[in-house]
Amino acid sequence: MILYLHGFRSSPQSFKARKMAEYMHSLGRAEEYVCPQLSASPLLAIQQAEQLMSAYAPEDITVIGSSLGGFYATWLAEKYGCKAILLNPAVKPPRDLEKYVGVTTAYHSDEVFEFKAEYVPQLRAYEVAAITQAERYFLLAATGDEVLDWREITAHYPAAKQIVIEGSDHGMADFVDYLDQVLLFCDAGI
Questions:
Q1: Residue 26 CB neighbours (<10 A)
Q2: What is the pTM of this model?
Q3: By three-state DSSP, how is residue 25 classified?
Q4: Which of 67, 80, 124, 171 could form a cystine bridge with 7, CB 3.0-4.6 A?
Q5: Tell me: the pLDDT tens digits for 49-85?
Q6: Which is nearest to 176 in space by CA: 71, 42, 22?
Q7: What span, in angstroms and rounded, lies between the C-alpha atoms of 129 and 157?
């Protein structure tokens, strides 16, 4: 099972989530891929992910997380011992998202999105100071990320498999170039 967790204010309609879904469908493996619409509440988002994971053994799960979803994927990988693929993951969202408290809209729709002040301490509860078993992690970080610092990201996953993409952006517009490597990591044993 591949569980894709989108980023802050994002959705299953994000570019990377759609490309991953299309890729799995083209391989006849669409039933192995799940990408839920995550709650704005970190507590509820983690509960959503855990519910979807509950029917599988950890060795049968890879969590792919983009941006804030990468932060969640890291915590889930540490708790459950599953694999995680991180796409420009947020490593300090309590610090970075505090300034976004309030009401706005989601990126892929006009739907109202509210990030409440109480969500910041919820994020702190899911911080992972240092990863264990680095072989369970695959990091893709873009040097052109306009939102997050790729150096901070790569430093947070020091012994993990890493691909640093020269240029690109936070949305990782060239993600399709890495789909084969992503799926190879998902299918490989730990």
A1: 10
A2: 0.95
A3: helix
A4: 67
A5: 999 999 999 999 999 999 999 999 999 999 999 999 9
A6: 22
A7: 10
> In the CATH scheme, what is the homologous superfamily, with its name and number, of domain 2-187?
Alpha/Beta hydrolase fold, catalytic domain (3.40.50.1820)
Per-residue pLDDT, 158: 95
Which residues, 6+ apart, have CB-to-CB distance to 120 below 8 Å?
94, 97, 98, 101
Cβ–Cβ under 8 Å, residues 147 and 170:
yes
How is residue 87 written in tokens? Answer: 């796409």
DSSP letter (8 states) at residue 153: H
d(CA 153, CA 142): 10
Q: Indicate the domain borders of the chain.
A: 2-187
Question: Could you say which residues of the chain have pLDDT below 70?
Answer: 108, 189-190
* CA separation for the pair 104, 123 (Å, rounded): 19
What is the DSSP pairing of strand 161-165 with strand 33-34?
A: unpaired
Report the distance separating Cα 134 and Cα 76, nearest Å. 14
Residue 113 has a CB neighbour count (10 Å cut-off) of 18
62 neighbors 77 (Cβ within 8 angstroms): no
As a whole number of Å, the CA-based R_g of the chain is 15
- Which among 57, 10, 71, 55 is positioned nearest to 35, based on CA atoms? 10
